[in-house]
Amino acid sequence: MTDASRARLGRHLRRWLGRWPAVATIDIVGSVRRERPGWDGKVHPLIGVRSPDGGVLSTTPATRAQILAAAAKDWEDLPAVLPAALGRPDRTVYSGVFRWCERPAPLSDAGVWVDATDEEVPEWLRPFGHQVLIARDPDSGAYLAGVGIKHHDRYGRELAVGTEPAARGGGLARRLVAQAARRVLDEGAVPTYQHDPTNIASARVAEAAGFPDRGWTSMGMG
């Protein structure tokens, strides 16, 4: 990992979580960021990122003591104990694979950037706002796939990709993700990518686009 990439990632995680790097195996931080709207205008009261050296779990200042009292000894135990600890047994805490990219794969561009409000943009991409990246059928012009960017802060931008069923399997998603990652890097931010550990297709897209699995994981509340 280059010094520049490490610096970008560190700045993003400090702003997003409230602290980075972790000062303990499970470093629980009370951050006002968890009380404010996130990239989608919604409040995300629980976010965590863990590296092989330790993890930061970011929550609201008011609920930090409740989580500390849950006394989970391992990061893997947190999803099971957090809903009850927060008084929200109806909620689910999920884990994901957390990836970032410093050198996108040298794949050819596959899409064009358009405003998220453009009439041709599908509904799932509209909440990302700003501009989104879409690929069209070269013959019919029909929408095939797209990438939205979650603008967490000025240093960290998370990519999300979706492909129409008929267009899957041809390498379109990886080309779009690599293209979007190049733009994020050019703008001075670090591109990140998260997916469910069981989503093999998403993992393959990430790897092929230049987002290796470094053994980092993420956590959030659904």
The assembly state of the depicted protein chains is: single chain
How would you write the strand order of the largest sheet?
1-3-2-10-4-9-8-7-6-5
Mean pLDDT: 94
CATH superfamily of the largest domain: Gcn5-related N-acetyltransferase (GNAT)
Query: In the CATH scheme, what's the topology name of the largest domain?
Result: Aminopeptidase
The helix/strand order is HEEEHHEEEEEHEHE
Low-confidence residue ranges: none
Helix content: 10-25%
Category by helix and strand content: alpha+beta
Distance between the termini: 31 Å
Number of domains: 2
Number of separate helices: 5
What is the CATH C-level name of the largest domain? Alpha Beta
Describe this structure in a few short sentences.
The protein is of the alpha+beta class and 222 residues long. The chain is 25% helix and 28% strand. It has two domains: 97 residues, no CATH class; 101 residues, 3-Layer(aba) Sandwich (Aminopeptidase).
Task: Report what the structure shows.
- The protein has 222 residues and is of the alpha+beta class.
- The chain is globular.
- 25% of the residues lie in helices and 28% in strands.
- Helix 4 packs across helix 5 (200-209).
- The protein has a ten-stranded mixed sheet with strand order 1-3-2-10-4-9-8-7-6-5.
- The chain folds into two domains: 3-99, no CATH class; 112-212, Aminopeptidase.
Secondary structure: elements and pairs:
Elements: H1 3-17, E1 26-30, E2 46-51, E3 54-59, H2 64-70, H3 78-85, E4 93-100, E5 112-115, E6 131-136, E7 143-151, E8 156-163, H4 172-186, E9 190-195, H5 200-209, E10 217-221
Parallel strand pairs: 1-3, 8-9
Antiparallel strand pairs: 2-3, 2-10, 4-9, 4-10, 5-6, 6-7, 7-8
